[in-house]
Amino acid sequence: MPDDLTPARYISRSLELNLFFLRIMNEHSLLIEASLPAQNAGLAAQANTFKNQFRDLLAETVPMADGHVSPSVLNSGELVTEDTEKLEGMTQQFTGINIDTALTRSELQLKAGLGEPHMEPQVSDLNNRAISLTNALIEFKTMLLSERKICATFTEMFYSELEHLRDEAQHYVSELQTLQLKRNPATKKGVINEKVFWDDKMADHAEFIQHLLDPSEKLWIIKARGLASRFHRLKIRANAAKDRGILNKRLRILLLDEITATKSLAGLKDAIADAYQECKVKSLFLPIWPDHVLREAHHFLRGMRDYYTLNG
């Protein structure tokens, strides 16, 4: 693939990235707000403001993206799933935090198509505003981490989970900045760096699932523990291949192993999300959380499959 993006690809790639990550950032803000006790009502209000700001930016992006994004993204399950709206409703019921489920329904109606060059200034402005808002959320997450570290604030969220949320926000900003330079992120180096990043996040997801499940949910705990180890090994293998300069020989094998492992983790997340809807989960996470991490697995899986298909 060439290193520079065409205007049409820049537009589609930007809209696809924003559709995925603006919702992720919105839900990060929701999860943080729900994790804060009444004593920290001021911090919860700040998180709620971020949630609403990301919702508004996503609501602006959806009609802009209609007819200008790839079918592989729309069909991947990374933007919304068939269960997202129901799990949002359950989360709103349990927390009292307002969630715009109409926005979820509108995303399910999106159509595929090519980016149009005349949209470039509008999309560039969207990217810049997303960078600015996400940087502000990164500062907020960093402040919460600092407060947690000195025991000045409590949240019902693992410290490492808050770090995880900040990492994903930083990754989003980095991806947008690359797009603003009109650089194609789907180079061999870009794909291996993306793989290493999401290997780490998938391992985190498996570990969070393991620790948030009820002790009686032993089969899921055992599966999550095994998947965490598997993703840690995949990350080590990818870094070793990159350091030894043997990506040409190993990347195809790594991607096949990655696709298999990610499908297994997505299956576990999907099973938990389904069980939650039937009131068969005893865990500590909110209903939207397994759907949230499932969409992240779908995002990673689609990226690996797209690159494997184009370069196989």
Walkthrough of the structure:
The protein has 312 residues and is mainly alpha-helical. The chain is 76% helix and 0% strand. It is built from 11 helices and no strands. It has helices at residues 7-35, 41-65, 71-74, 84-95, 101-108, 120-149, 159-180, 188-212, 218-243, 247-277, 288-311. The chain is globular, with a radius of gyration of 19 Å.
Q: What order do the helices and strands come in, and which of them pair?
A:
Layout: H1 7-35, H2 41-65, H3 71-74, H4 84-95, H5 101-108, H6 120-149, H7 159-180, H8 188-212, H9 218-243, H10 247-277, H11 288-311
Which short descriptors sum up this protein?
mainly alpha, 76% helix
Strand residue percentage = under 5%
Question: What's the main sheet like?
Answer: none
Q: What's the total count of β strands?
A: 0
* Count of separate DSSP helical elements: 11
Query: What class, by secondary structure content?
Result: mainly alpha
Tell me roughly what share of residues is in helical segments: over 70%
Mean pLDDT: 92
Order of helices and strands: HHHHHHHHHHH
* Termini separation: 13 Å
Shape: globular
Low-confidence stretches: none
Measured on Cα atoms, how large is the radius of gyration? Answer: 19 Å
